[in-house]
Amino acid sequence: MKYTKIPWTLMPGSVYLPPCLGQFDLYSLMVCGIILVMQKLTFAFIAVVLLIFVLTGLYIRSAEAEKKQLRSQIETQQISDLHQLPSEEESATRSAVPSKQLGAIEGSLSFPSSGIPDTMEVCAEHTKTLEITCTGEIQKSDDYTFGFGYQLELTPGSYLVYAQLPNDSYRAYYSDFVLCGLAASCPSHNPIMVTVEPNMTASGIDPQDWYDTNQ
Asked: What does pTM read for this prediction?
């Protein structure tokens, strides 16, 4: 039987399809199948390209929106910072206010045994606020009565000064007993109020009253 090859045609506006119908020779069927597969692959490729194009457009739009939002936040923060900046008048007023000046106290230390414990602290209690400021730094100098003393910086005000050991509630105050000479005949152990003034050091504040039996 003899087969007649029909020429392949493509109608305007139609998808190209080889005239496989009616063709029974192996060559025509193979060519027809290859062309159909290539058409499907072409459509899939076009679909992928379109999808990539759409996703790229969406990403670009999202990135632009984020940039605008970030730019808006930066501008808002800059405006807020400008509002928080002090004016020239406020800056001049602040610079005109002097910082709070400190005073100091110092004195000699003693202890009713041989030597000064390394753990001894000297504290000053503000008579109004009851705020307590302490130092554990013991000074060694011949300027002190027994060779040991302390120095403590404080804000101006009135204080009661005492020495103390850790885990011991006893307070060895700077008291009338100290000024009396630490003698057994001295009747009073009342703490003495010390006044601290700016830029001045009150000397001779010796917290040495370790003998108050009423504590």
From this structure: 0.55
